[in-house]
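Researcher: Good morning. I'm working through a list of sequences from a screen, and I'd like to move beyond sequence-only analysis. For each chain I'm collecting a predicted structure so we can compare shapes side by side. This is the next one on the list. No need for commentary yet; just the structure.
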Amino acid sequence: MRMAGWRLNPIHFAAACLVAVSCISARGQYDLPKPDEAAVATLRRAVTKQPDGSHVPLVFALRQLRDPDLKPLFYQLAQSGDGQSQVQAVLALAEIDPTKKVDVWLISQIQDQAQEMVIANALDLEMISPQQIEQILSQDSLNPMARLMLMAEQLLAGQSNIDANELDVLSKSEDEYVAGFASILLAQLGQPAQWTAYQKTIEAQKLNSRTRLTLWLLDAIGRYKITKFSDWVRAQGTASDADEAVTFRAVYAMLQMDPAAGLDLWSKAVGDKPSAGTQARYALTLLAVSEDLPPQAFDRLRVAGADSLVLDMAEAGTAVASDTDPSASLIALLKTGHLKTTDWVMTAVEDLKPEHAAKVYKFLIEQVDVSTSAQTDPVGLATKSVAKLVEIDPSWVLERLRAAEDDSVLQQTLLLGMFQSDSPLVGEAAAQVRRIGSGRADSLALLLIAKHAKSLDPEDLKKLGTIASGGGQVSDVLQVQAAWFYIKHTNNIQTALGSIFTK
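Model: Good morning. Structure tokens for this chain:
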């Protein structure tokens, strides 16, 4: 995986997995296996590599629980699972740990590519401290790309004690991406010789390969603010024969490094009479760095004949850049239903003041009951919003749950989003949900109770066993959580873990 493919977004992944419950057909309630055997079988399927990758969301579902009692399972999986499972296991252990930091020793135990993905995700989630970066870099078996990411982080943080000799070795790698990244970092340290030599590597590539490599290098330069490459980036963005994707990426990289210079390059790339598509696409680059731009920068989008979407983007960008309450502008942008701007809003809202973010989250939650909603995935967006809002304004979420129609999409969405929270209020609220059958909402409420309760009464334990066995009309990701809860509430963890990893 390279750059854009490095990162997994836990909230997005969780919602994608959980929202599957809304389209799961009713499972048969007859001839179900014994719950204890079914629970072990379900967990064994989660920790065993499946050809279609279906085990990965199951492992993530267990990670989502953030249950300290799952530590033995994750430690075993981190050392014996496939690469994708190892990534989830190491991150899960970091989320469980009181310090919220990765286990440095475990990184040395996982597969080469898994190291790269763990480092990328852990850096994004702030799960690696500066001291741990040094400890990880001391490991001889560290993946080269993971090593370069950590060194780039040190450089971005202003550290000067970067091992230039090691970078020099990596700059001679047969992997052109490793060699290029190392050469870039060396040049930023004031040693441009390897980058000069590397130009021949770029030129030797066939057109498609050269374009992919150039795009990747631009991503690295922008992300890590490799300022000594401003001239090179500008050259990529202004070349008359440049691929349009390269021009776009060069503009974005320059905006990340130097907003003022980036705006100048942006204007050159967009031109005087851009098409509506070009306007919208390049407007996204301004939104992506809106916190670093002056509000007036978005006046560039307010031109004669500008598309209404672009004007909405301008309003949202101006509001965020102005550090005022941007919720109304963000909501207006969400109402367009434009996928990429919606993705940006969901990222931008995380950095707002809680009272401002709450307005956006509440709007999205209410959309699941609106048949004319412009959102392409109203349930998914609402689920993410509940997960965030339950930490900001739990009383609103709980009141909305009490008022929601029984077994409605809204009720299910609220329950799904509440899985993200560790607050005991969630368990208490789930216990108040009217459970009169075995519908999805009933099952979801029971799972929330099982997550927060120290013990279950016999009837609830029996129902939990039914869900763990495949009943209860829930998705596979919720079934695996039910399986874990059943094992835990029957005090069978140690025996079950021994069986789960038995070949």
